[in-house]
Design brief:
Length: 235
Amino acid sequence: MLVRGGEGCEKGLKELRTAIDLAKGRYGYQADYARGLLVCGQVEAAERQAREAWKLSLSAEERAGCARVLVACAEESNRRDEQIRWLREVVKHDPNDTAASQRLAKLAPPAPAAKPKAQNVIAWVEYETGMEQASKEKKPLLIDFTASWCGWSKKLEKEVFPTREVIALSREFVCIKVDGDAREDLTAKYAVHGYPTALMLDDDGEELLRVVGFRAAEEYAAEMKAALAAREAAG
């Protein structure tokens, strides 16, 4: 056994070097030599050797072993970032190493979860989900009938739906997106004959307002306000 600073160091390292020369490129000897150098206090040489062994490692076990040596080298030279880097490799290749996981948690605790950003897009849902939601929440519906090939629908998506006023008004509705080509049952039910078509309904499904074709953002927002006003007037 090699002992730091002991007389056995040089003899043991010499034997390992001989073994490496006889079996060039073999991972096991390279890794053992790195460990031997570390035990003998030759930290920089141990790190160089461990990095060479890392290149030769193939299995998860071999990579975890190399990473442990590199963690120890970084610890000896007081390099916190390198300790974290190689501890992550240990945990990655040996998830059952609880000691490494605990050390990593102390050195690099997980960042607190970011607070969710305020919604800045329209919260579209599918038809069945939206109808159920509107019934429960007693909210009006905005159903956007669209088609993937429709240029005016794409223009609406790009220029109107991302605007601040339309997004703000959309929160007063349950917003449903319908692909008319995929839901011919719904285009028949609501007598939709072209795209884009927006239907604004009360929570009972009664039509408040219909918008056929493209509208600029200001006009679209005005139509949404009109539908809300119509619902309010209906009581």
